[in-house]
Amino acid sequence: MSNEHPVYMGPRLRRLRRELGLTQANMATDLDISPSYVALLERNQRPLTADMLLRLARTYRLDMASLATDGHDDTIARLQTVLKDPMFADIEVPALETTDVVTGFPGITEAFLRLHTAYREEHLALADRGAEVQGGDALASDPVAEARRFLAARRNNFPGLDDAAEALANAVAEAGGLAGYLKDRHRLKVRRLPSDVMGGATRRYDRHRDEVLLDDTLDNASQTFQLALQLAWLELRADIDAPLAAGNFQTESGERLAQKALASYAAAAIMMPYAAFARAAERRRYDVEALGRQFGASFEQTAHRLTTLQKPGDERVPFFFIRVDPAGNVSKRLDGAGFPFARHGGACPLWAVHQAFRRPREIITQWVELPDGQRFFSIARSVTAGGGAYGALRVERAIALGCSAEHATKLIYTQDPAAPGPDSATPIGVTCHLCHRTRCTARSAPPIGRTVLPDDFRRASAPFGFSDI
After folding, report:
1. Can you list the residues of the chain whose pLDDT is less than 50?
2. Tell me: the pLDDT tens digits for 214-225?
3. Same domain, yes or no, for 123 and 235?
4. Residue 4 lies in a domain
5. Which end of the chain offers a freer environment for a tag, N or C, measured as fewer CB atoms within 10 Å?
6. 258, 146 in Cβ contact below 8 A?
7. d(Cα 331, Cα 92) in Å, to the nearest integer?
8. Where are the beta strands (DSSP E) in 150-289?
9. Is the domain of 293 the same as that of 170?
10. 53 and 118 fall within a common domain
11. Which among 330, 319, 386 is positioned nearest to 354, based on CA atoms?
12. Do 44 and 10 meet the contact criterion of CB atoms below 8 Å apart?
């Protein structure tokens, strides 16, 4: 008795036909079969025989291995990740059912995944609108908030862009580096020029002279990033623009900011390809400095890349990231760890990210606890942008990278037995308006819903006294 099982590849065949721009009648003519038989194959009502696989491979010059791959693994992993959302906590979906749905109903699966992404984006938009009502600001069309919502709804992870960038990174490595690849593939020469010649630009693509011009005050990591960014615009524009089609943008500027973020994501993925970087991150226990040295990236670039390691089926420690300036302004925040960032305004002053300016270039570790009892572990360090020459403007910022307590033991920063543990966590809040720690001496504003008491008879050590009700 034969051990062979019939092979059904209807959804894969349908995708192939559409990618080739063919109708069922066109494909039937090419394969010398009837259009009705093609329709039966696509609906999984007939198995795909070995003879038919060979016909497909010969007719369309396809690799048999790629043709035989159903491509469902990534979609199954995506669906399983989505089903972990707390809103589905009371629904038990066995792995076999997930596989059956993806295999048998690929269109419905994709529709569900898109709907869930749209739900998350609208959920974040609703949070923003709530903050606007409380603050009295008209921020509904804030382009920065739009771009942040777009990234947060997708957990700052774009698997398709990672795959395309990884393939490009392999080609770059074979060419001996970015400069060599740009010269061989695009006939572009890389030149480094003084800042005054660059006219305020750090990178410029000169199409007429076939050159990529770089400011010669950039450090090595920044030069590499700029070359990778230019390459991403040259070869990965379609992959960069594809996720934007599903974004809910109200302004052109919001979409442009999201597009810039995706281009930077692609550049980082070229410098630090997903598979190699994820393996190295686990091997080095998420040591940001060591990973930066290995991949030729800066501390900030490496920390930023660590927030993207949530590829379905190959997830690593989920991190959140925030960048602030000395005035407390938040210029970037990315969340893959479920950290409840304030939708508007700065971070809690008790968080160590604000202390990093007093201890330049030193890594500061801290356990923090939110009012609801959630604990997180974070590292903070100051970083510098600009400079590179005497008198050149330098911008000092501080960044924090963190994860939830359940993942903290995987980090090298928690391995010192003498270091404080989670029981010594600093009590912080998301923002003063939402924090009900009434005795906090760092408070800058009263929490919503609490009445401020007069201080004619008693002055509390905290900036405000509150009624019990």
Report:
1. 1-3, 130-139, 469
2. 999 999 999 999
3. no
4. no
5. N
6. yes
7. 40
8. 189-193, 203-206, 211-215
9. yes
10. no
11. 330
12. yes
